[in-house]
């Protein structure tokens, strides 16, 4: 309701990161960014052009930012195909987290956003990003994160449960149990 009505009124933009038990290319932060920027169905050159436009529309970015974003969205390069430019290889997880942070920073310069993290109990790759955004050093992005978690599914996922418990220790988070 919050997302639907806020978006209808032009008060927020809604970004939904889905997660599934089988973890597919349609899950997580990278897939959400690709959907948000409408890159999913574009041919490789047009997708890169769209990413270049997005990067150019925000604060000054490193020269290879659009190509890095392309490779973050599709690390195997399956969907974007083979392009003439070289691939940007991430040497650690933090590089991808910072790149996604910069996406949110650019995307929220004119309008706040709600990031809906659906079925986060299956979002092992998304949880470090949530922790990154909750870091005190990243507190100037107008972004509200709302996560849904199925308690019964979480019971079987020790690593995700541990990370979610750590996230809930942050003074910037709260939890609300909803009976279905």
Helix content: 40-55%
Biggest β-sheet description: 3 strands, parallel
Q: How far apart are the termini?
A: 16 Å
Low-confidence spans: none
- Helix count, DSSP H or I runs of 4 or more residues: 8
Instruction: Tell me the strand order in the biggest sheet.
Output: 1-2-3
Based on CA atoms alone, the radius of gyration comes out at: 17 Å
What is the arithmetic mean of pLDDT? 84
Which sequence of SSEs, written as H and E, runs from N to C?
Answer: HEHHHHEHEHH
Computed structural class: mainly alpha
Shape estimate: globular
DSSP, total strands: 3
Strand content: 5-15%
Describe this structure as you would to a colleague.
This protein is mainly alpha-helical and 180 residues long. It contains eight helices and three strands. The protein has helices spanning 2-8, 28-36, 44-56, 65-73, 93-107, 127-134, 151-154, 158-168; strands spanning 13-17, 113-117, 143-147. A three-stranded parallel sheet has the order 1-2-3. β2, α6 and β3 (143-147) form a beta-alpha-beta unit. α3 (44-56) packs across α4, α4 crosses α5 and α6 runs parallel beside α8. The longest helix is centred in the middle third of the chain and has 15 residues, at 93-107. It is globular, with a radius of gyration of 17 Å.
Features:
180 residues; mainly alpha; 3-stranded parallel beta sheet
Summarize the structure.
With 180 residues, the chain is mainly α.
